[in-house]
Amino acid sequence: MNYEQYKIDFLQTLRNESAISGSDTEDEFINHTLDVLTEFDEIQDPVRINMGDKKGKNGRIMSIDGYSFDETEHSLILFISDFQDSLETEKLTMGRVDELYWRLYYFIDEAVNGKIDEYFDDSDDVIGVSNYLKRRINANLDSSEQVLKIKFYILTNKELDTKLMNANLLETTIKKRKGTRKTKTTKKIKKQDFNQKPLEINLWYLERIYEMEESNNNDPIVIDIQNDFPQLGLKGIPCLKGDIGENLGYEAYIAIISGKLLSEIYIEYGSKVLEGNVRAFLGTSGSKSVNSGIKRTINNEPNKFFTYNNGIATTASDVEIEKIDGELFITKIVDLQIINGGQTTASLADAVLKKRNVELKDVYVPMKLTVIEDRETETEEGISSYDAMVKAIAKYANSQNKVTAADLFSNDPFHVWMEKMSKKHLAPPTSHSPVPTGWYYERSRKKYQQEQVKLKTKADVKRFTTKFPKKQVITKEQLAMYITAIHCKPDVVSKGKNWVMKEFSKTITTEYKANREVFNEFYFKKCVCAAIIFRSVDFYLESNKDSARRPTGFWYKTGGYKLNIVPYTIAKILSCIPSDMSLDWDYIWREQKLSSAFMREIEIVTKMTNDFICDSHGVIVTEYCKKQATWDEYKKVPYKPSANFMNELVSLNFMKEQEESAAKDQKENNDLKKVMDIISLGNIYWKSLLKKGILNNLLSYQEQLVLKKIIEMASTGSIPATSSSGKVPYKTMSMINNAISIKEKLEAEGVK
């Protein structure tokens, strides 16, 4: 996509998002720009401030749109926007830059050196920001909060005027990002110091944002072995093409890849080549692990690595093969995915990254490559036949670590969606966590650990773990237990995580496909709340067992039936809530903990649960808890929640209204995305589909009319008129759904 088209699409997207969310277009611009800068590690954890313009001392105009702190270089970053909702934007001049600079300068000056509380209410967020800035600026030299540099980021969709582009005014650097393309980096204007801290202006304008996204987008990885890794001096990867028949939808190759090349690929691309893997790197610790065996072979017998190792199973969407000196070599691979053998790959890279003085020149790895035609990328909308083949390869290839049912379930659309939501929606700051934090959803085993492997410094790792604390990692198995527990099925949870995962996977996949609107921000937050409830009960038992702080001792002892007590306690409390009432899920999300009244109920019910399940009538307690009859019997045990707990409940109708509102918003978002997806395919695509459908006599007259209307829509490249809320008209949506059905029908008939 060229820049001119990008500008059009960019503004249209902002307007669409604004219509959907009801926010200002400039707000959407700021949020999008900060997301891009965060994604590409230009900033960390930005915080938005909706202050607007405010007059301060001597009528000075102050303004700020957000802030961030870079822990690596100890720089404080303040953001201000200069947005124009038009394609015919005016130029950003040096005079305008100065004006924006002074607005930020007056704000930080008033916040740190002045009396900003005179211009804002005590409850205003600006007061908290002021205190934060003052603390950072005045921090001691040896403090982790020390500020060494101050940066003003001007975010704009305007283009720079000629004078501003003058090299004498701007410091312009060029650096190479991932891939081969060189991109422009920070354009800086140095300014006077502030409180003896160097200050500079950084300009982030639309063309720079475009360059950044284009230079490091989500296009498939293209590995050119000779040109990308010239230091290795390789012709390519020696291979043999398998004679497996025709029209199978894939090609097969057997190859031998150099251990050095394999490690370099992983170091360069990391998890991107493992996205199709059912597992991430499981680590090399533990003397009995397979990975530690790989490590020993690398260290002690590298020339025997080929013999000892099962090799790797890989997929690609395309390859280039050259015959050099009478031998076949793979010289280029498009969208390489290591489906099986991620442990081998990561172990080789691990040896290099940790500088173990390991020589990999004698290490060679067997490689099976399946080139799958017409690969569909992994999306929320569904995992295609490609993914089915990927799962089959993962399941049937020689495994180096046991693959569980949960592993094979990791690429299910629901889990892809959960992972995205966990990175998108951070929990709010609380008294015990002053910064927003994320609940990391680990859809592949050890992926949380694997994401830290390529982080270059300890500061990078600290920043990642601060944003996503280890205690806030949720695995698929855990989520299945949490959701099953709050659905009052403690007998199912008691059967163990593998059984729960099996039952959960049966239902959630069907539910996700059947009613996507239910799976929204509210649902994700409720999942986190379920985790908080489950872990709170667990922590209460674990932290008080065998406690020396209690002279008389605590009733729960090490080796007790905690795995049964926890789900039965949760189910008992929730099942006793009146049918017209509900937990206040918003409170749990907002506070990131349970109320004291809720914890008091847990104290009471855990003891009651323990006494009940231990009276198992001679049956082994753990087996007793697996029976639905046990839960049915426990429901009859008298228990009435306290008045304090009951007073914290909210109306069920109120909660349903929240759920319905979230579902409505999600439906409108999904509908709009469908429309945009249809348009993005382009009129040429739809014309071709119509032509082939007619030639093959596969389309009714009404279906032809639908496709013609879609062609007309795609030709204009515009989204049909929406309501003020962003809702797509019913007739338009009906046509879109019909077009999708026709497309799927023709594809099922073999039309490409």
Total beta strand runs: 21
Radius of gyration, in Å, reads: 29 Å
Intertermini distance: 24 Å
Q: What oligomeric state do the depicted chains represent?
A: single chain
Structural class, by secondary structure, is: alpha+beta
How would the blueprint of this fold be written?
Blueprint: H1 3-21, H2 25-39, E1 47-48, E2 54-55, E3 61-62, E4 66-70, E5 75-82, H3 94-113, H4 125-137, E6 149-156, E7 171-176, E8 182-194, E9 197-205, H5 206-215, E10 222-224, H6 225-228, E11 237-241, E12 250-258, H7 259-269, H8 290-300, H9 305-308, E13 312-316, E14 318-324, E15 327-334, E16 337-340, H10 342-353, E17 364-372, H11 385-396, H12 405-408, H13 413-424, E18 440-442, H14 447-450, H15 458-467, E19 473-475, H16 476-486, H17 490-493, H18 497-514, H19 521-544, H20 562-575, E20 581-582, H21 585-591, H22 596-614, H23 621-624, H24 628-635, H25 643-647, E21 650-651, H26 652-681, H27 683-695, H28 701-716, H29 730-748
Parallel strand pairs: 5-6, 6-9, 13-17, 18-19
Antiparallel strand pairs: 1-4, 2-3, 4-5, 7-8, 8-9, 10-15, 11-12, 11-15, 12-17, 13-16, 14-15, 20-21
How would you portray this structure in words?
The protein has 752 residues and is of the alpha+beta class. The protein folds into 4 domains: 213 residues, no CATH class; 182 residues, no CATH class; 232 residues, no CATH class; 93 residues, no CATH class. Helix content is 47%, strand content 15%. The protein is built from 29 helices and 21 strands. Strands 10, 11, 12, 13, 14, 15, 16 and 17 form an 8-stranded mixed sheet that branches. Strand 14 and strand 15 form a beta hairpin. The protein starts with a helix and ends with a helix. About 7% of the residues have low confidence.
